[in-house]
Amino acid sequence: MKPVFNPMFRGRITIDEFIALADWPVPGNAARVNMASAFGFFQENVRRDVLWTPENSPWLRKINGRGYKVVSWMQGICFELPVNPNRIFRKGDPLHSYRDPAEKLGTVPGNWFTFPSTDPDKLGMYPEQTRLHKFKVKSHFECLQSVASDAYCGWFPDRPPRYRHGGGQQLFIPSPARYLEALLG
User: Fold this and answer.
1) Do residues 69 and 52 make contact, with C-beta atoms less than 8 angstroms apart?
2) Which is nearest to 145 in space by CA: 33, 6, 8, 37?
3) Do the beta carbons of residue 159 and residue 128 sit within 8 Å?
4) Distance CA 13, CA 47 (A)
5) Distance CA 144, CA 34 (A)
């Protein structure tokens, strides 16, 4: 019988509990270790109410019949490749993100970023997310580095979901406005 999860529970859950709850097929021990690194990073660095925010995506793995933000983030990571929960950045390092063209430059939106050398077509995102946002690191920090998985993109409610290929380096930065300075142009 599948375990039952209460998102109001205040403690942490283990990767084995998460795998069982989400009925996630794990292809091997290396993938399980990478999943544990990413899931541990999210639990340590993101508020619980954010992690367990419900999401209504038909392709998300479900826990007790519901999709959650942390599941969406986990599905966006290729666990067959290395995950680094302690990627260090130093003052002055450049980073990029790609956003909807309607989003204003000069802000630090979202949590997902990448290196300037990463091909945006390998980030598993909507093809319309073409507006390049450039950033400079303003103070030392650590983040989660992983490789984007192939994924269905569906976070824009006015657009149909699309299957996109991954393979590019991606970075999850909690509270990025604390560490990144948005560059115009």
Assistant:
1) yes
2) 37
3) yes
4) 14
5) 11
Encoding tokens for residue 18? 């998460």
CB-based burial of residue 178 (10 Å sphere; 0-12 exposed, 13-18 middle, 19+ buried)? exposed
pLDDT tens digits, one per residue of 17-55: 999 999 999 999 999 999 999 999 999 999 999 999 998
Kindly report the three-state secondary structure assignment for every residue of 86-124: EEEECCCCEEEEEECCCCCCCCCCCCEEECCCCCHHHCC
**For the chain, the helix, strand and coil percentages under 3-state DSSP, each to the nearest 5:** 25, 30, 50
The answer, as to whether pTM is greater than 0.85, is yes
Amino acid at 62: K
